[in-house]
Amino acid sequence: MKDYDHIIIWTDYFNRNLSRRKGRKISKDKAIFDPSIQELVDASKTAGFVVSADNTNETARFPRRPYVRSGYVMLEKNENPKKSNILHTLAERITQNRTKLSKRR
Q1: For residue 42, which of 82, 100, 104 has the smallest C-alpha distance?
Q2: Does the pTM of the predicted model rise above 0.85?
Q3: Backbone φ and ψ of 82, nearest 5°
Q4: What's the CA gap between 83 and 73, in Å, rounded?
Q5: How far is the C-alpha of 5 from the C-alpha of 59, rounded, in Å?
Q6: How many CB atoms lie within 10 A of CB 87?
Q7: pLDDT (tens digit, 9 = 90+) per residue, 91-102?
Q8: What pLDDT band is residue 1 in, cutting at 50, 70 and 90?
Q9: Domains of the chain, each with CATH number or no CATH
Q10: How far is it, in rounded angstroms, from Cα 8 to Cα 3?
Q11: At what angle do helices 83-104 and 37-46 cross, to 10 degrees?
Q12: Given phi > 0 = left and psi -120 to 50 = alpha, else beta, which region is 71?
């Protein structure tokens, strides 16, 4: 049964290695190489979403690539109902978090 109160965000949406046909939803200049589920959870939390352990699944397989485990995060809908706006916000947060990590090393 479809859940209209949540949005599913797959890690493959942000994977720079994938084509749009394979599931990437963000432009290549905003996408990153091999995003992890933890990066997606951290970006979601910094964007203001509440993410619990039972709203993540790191063993799920994206339907366009059933041979690879990618994972997803289930977010509650907020005042912004457009999924594309949420994806762009999360893409910015993921790249910001990655640059912070690379500067620390």
Answers
A1: 100
A2: yes
A3: -85, 125
A4: 13
A5: 22
A6: 17
A7: 999 999 888 877
A8: low
A9: 6-104 (3.30.56.30)
A10: 10
A11: 110
A12: left
